[in-house]
Design goal:
The N and C termini lie far apart (60 Å). The chain has one helix at residues 3-11. 54% of the residues are buried. The chain has 1 helix and no strands. It is 4% helix and 0% strand. By secondary structure, the chain is mostly loops.
């Protein structure tokens, strides 16, 4: 199926495109709310500025996809492969990303507030200035993730892996880091007021910076 055929069928009222192959298709600025693309091949697709609110993308292949400024509010991306995808400025408020693969993704300024990233793989993801307020990141792998300036107010990071992650200037007020592994993490300027750190591993974490003038 190509992009034009999908748009025509969607306009005619069809919503189920389960397991469709749209590899490398361009659907920039497309309006596709509540579409079902579960288990679809969406590798290298261009969804920039598209509206996919409430979409079913469970188990879909979005590797290397362009999702810049895409609206994915309430979308279900559980078990989806988003590795190396570009999501800068995307809206993922209340999205479901349980067990999703987001390794090496570019997510600068993304809004993931109130979303679920339970056990998601975010290794080396770029989340600079992202909003993760009230987000569920329990058991997520954030090793070497870039979280500089990110907002994680009241985020659930219980048993999350944050080894060697960069949390410089991050806002972690009220976050639950119980049992989290922060070994080697960079925490200069991070705000941990009211955060829970019961049984958290902080060996080798850097809490302060010595700046040379």
């Amino acid at each position: 199926m190509n992009a034009d055929e999908l748009l025509k069928r969607y306009a005619a009222g069809e919503r189920n495109f389960h397991e469709t192959n749209l590899k490398e298709a361009s659907l920039r600025e497309a309006f596709l709310i509540h579409i079902n693309l579960a288990c679809a091949n969406l590798k290298e697709i261009n969804f920039a500025l598209a509206n996919l609110m409430g979409a079913n993308l469970i188990g879909s292949n979005l590797k290397n996809a362009c999702l810049v400024m895409t609206k994915l509010n309430g979308a279900n991306l559980s078990r989806a492969d988003l590795s190396f995808a570009r999501l800068t400025g995307a809206d993922l408020i209340e999205a479901k990303l349980k067990n999703a693969n987001l390794s090496d993704t570019k997510m600068i300024g993304v809004d993931l507030s109130r979303s679920s990233l339970y056990a998601a793989n975010l290794m080396e993801a770029n989340l600079i200035d992202a909003c993760l307020d009230n987000t569920n990141l329990e058991k997520a792998n954030l090793s070497e993730a870039k979280l500089r300036g990110a907002s994680l107010l009241k985020a659930n990071l219980r048993n999350a892996v944050l080894c060697e992650s960069n949390l410089e200037g991050a806002d972690l007020r009220g976050a639950d880091l119980s049992g989290a592994n922060l070994s080697g993490a960079f925490l200069c300027g991070a705000n941990l007021e009211g955060a829970k750190l019961d049984e958290a591993i902080l060996s080798g974490a850097i809490h302060f910076c010595v700046r040379q003038v």
